[in-house]
Amino acid sequence: MVSRTEEYALRAAVCLARRYGEGTVRARDMAQDTGIPANYLSKILHQLARAGVVVSERGRAGGFTLAAPPSTVVLATVVAPFEPQVQRTRCLLGLPQCSDSNPCGAHERWRTIKEATLEFLNDTTLADVIDSSDARASDC
């Protein structure tokens, strides 16, 4: 349901959420900790910074931090810069004429899945994800 880029963005945001309040995290360190290719991660982080999800600081002590507390950042905010909401609502079969008034064979079932996914992304914060994964090994 999410692209590889969105997955990486979520993993990076979770990493920053785990370290929230501890100062900046260098992209290179985050890439090592998460297994995300460094160049790809750098592009993702800069896009998140342009969207206001993270803050980028230059210099010797530079790096990235979340722009807001993890309890206030919903997952939809993290993935939004990478796939517009409009694309997330497209037909599963890619049919341009598919709509509520002219549904394809998968329309009703697919709509249920899309709505549940959007609800999850809009209702789940980074803090929720951290709280539910703290018992497992940290990936950051």
End-to-end span in angstroms?
23 Å
The unreliable regions are none
Global outline: elongated
Largest sheet: 2 strands, antiparallel
Work out the helix count.
7
Please state the second-level CATH architecture: Orthogonal Bundle
Radius of gyration: 17 Å
Can you tell me the CATH topology? Arc Repressor Mutant, subunit A
Mean pLDDT: 90
Strand elements, count: 2
Task: Give a verbal description of the structure.
The protein has helices at residues 4-18, 27-34, 38-50, 75-79, 85-88, 107-123, 126-133, and strands spanning 54-57, 63-66. The chain has 140 residues and is mainly alpha-helical. It has one domain (4-133): Winged helix-like DNA-binding domain superfamily/Winged helix DNA-binding domain (Arc Repressor Mutant, subunit A, Orthogonal Bundle), CATH 1.10.10. Strands 1-2 form a two-stranded antiparallel ribbon. Helix 1 crosses helix 7 and helix 2 crosses helix 3 (38-50). The model has no long low-confidence stretch (mean pLDDT 90).
Write the layout of secondary structure elements.
Layout: H1 4-18, H2 27-34, H3 38-50, E1 54-57, E2 63-66, H4 75-79, H5 85-88, H6 107-123, H7 126-133
Antiparallel strand pairs: 1-2
Short note summarizing the structure:
Helix content is 50%, strand content 6%. It has helices at 4-18, 27-34, 38-50, 75-79, 85-88, 107-123, 126-133, and strands spanning 54-57, 63-66.
